[in-house]
Design brief:
The protein is an alpha/beta fold. It has one domain (9-214): Rossmann fold (3-Layer(aba) Sandwich), CATH 3.40.50. The chain has helices at 9-15, 28-44, 60-68, 81-90, 105-108, 126-132, 135-148, 175-188; strands at residues 50-54, 73-78, 98-102, 117-122, 149-161, 190-201, 204-214. A seven-stranded mixed sheet has the order 3-2-1-4-5-7-6. Strand 2 (73-78), helix 4 (81-90) and strand 3 (98-102) form a beta-alpha-beta unit. Helix 2 runs parallel beside helix 3 (60-68). The longest helix is centred in the N-terminal third of the chain and has 17 residues, at 28-44. It is globular and about 40 Å long. The termini are far apart.
Length: 217
């Protein structure tokens, strides 16, 4: 049996063998995190026409965006085919305006249309890419995502910080790494806000940060 490399496509396919492995669809913690991001979007972009979502998993956040912004077309790029199949089922009522793409954003970046999106939502996944890609490629990817935004477009991200050592992702969510990503992003898109939250999920308190950036050039 082939060994599964951590953070590879195979890793996420295995992770999504069972539905909703991170409780994105059922957790009040996750829903609160989504709502905080939605509030930022609604405050800055009243009526987005085109939204890019990187890493939608099974579509928990996608559903909320589709409900809140009924005029928006959403392109959602997900590395796991299993997660995307469930996202398709969860989003059937919005299928006329949601495009689901099964791809690794690290490879799909060259296909991103420039000056296309009013909003990009890129949450809980940049640290996986940081564990797989050299720094030069991370910078290139961030620039491609930036260029896919329209001038004045908004990038919103939520990222967990310092997960417990008992969770595999603890290695990729260490604070210095998150600070590095924030620095890279801030050099390419204007930082609008950075907020820190401590909230409980399944009996454990986690820290996460929500960042918002504006494309100015």
């Amino acid at each position: 049996m082939k060994a599964i490399t951590r953070w590879s496509v195979e890793y996420f396919e295995e992770k999504f063998t069972a539905p909703d492995p991170w409780k994105y669809l059922t957790s009040n913690y996750e829903r609160t995190k989504y709502q905080r991001q939605l509030d930022i979007i609604a405050d800055r972009v009243a009526n987005p026409q085109n939204i890019l979502e990187i890493g939608p998993a099974e579509g928990a956040h996608t559903i909320l965006m589709a409900q809140l912004f009924p005029g928006a077309k959403i392109t959602a790029i997900e590395i796991s085919s299993r997660a995307l199949k469930r996202a398709h089922d969860n989003l059937l009522q919005f299928e006329d305006r949601i495009e689901l793409v099964n791809a690794d954003i690290a490879e799909y970046k060259t296909k991103l249309k420039e000056n296309c999106y009013d909003v990009s939502v890129w949450s809980e996944s940049i640290y996986y890419l940081g564990a797989r890609l050299p720094l030069t490629e991370i910078c290139d990817l961030v620039e491609k995502v930036k260029n896919s935004l329209k001038l004045g477009g908004l990038l919103v991200m939520a990222n967990t910080v310092n997960l417990p050592a008992s969770i595999p992702e603890f290695a990729v969510t260490k604070r210095p790494l998150l600070e590095c990503y924030y620095s890279i992003l801030s050099s390419l898109v204007f930082p609008l806000s950075s907020s820190v939250y401590f909230e409980e999920k399944l009996g454990t308190t986690y820290e996460y940060q929500i960042w918002a950036f504006l494309r100015q050039k």
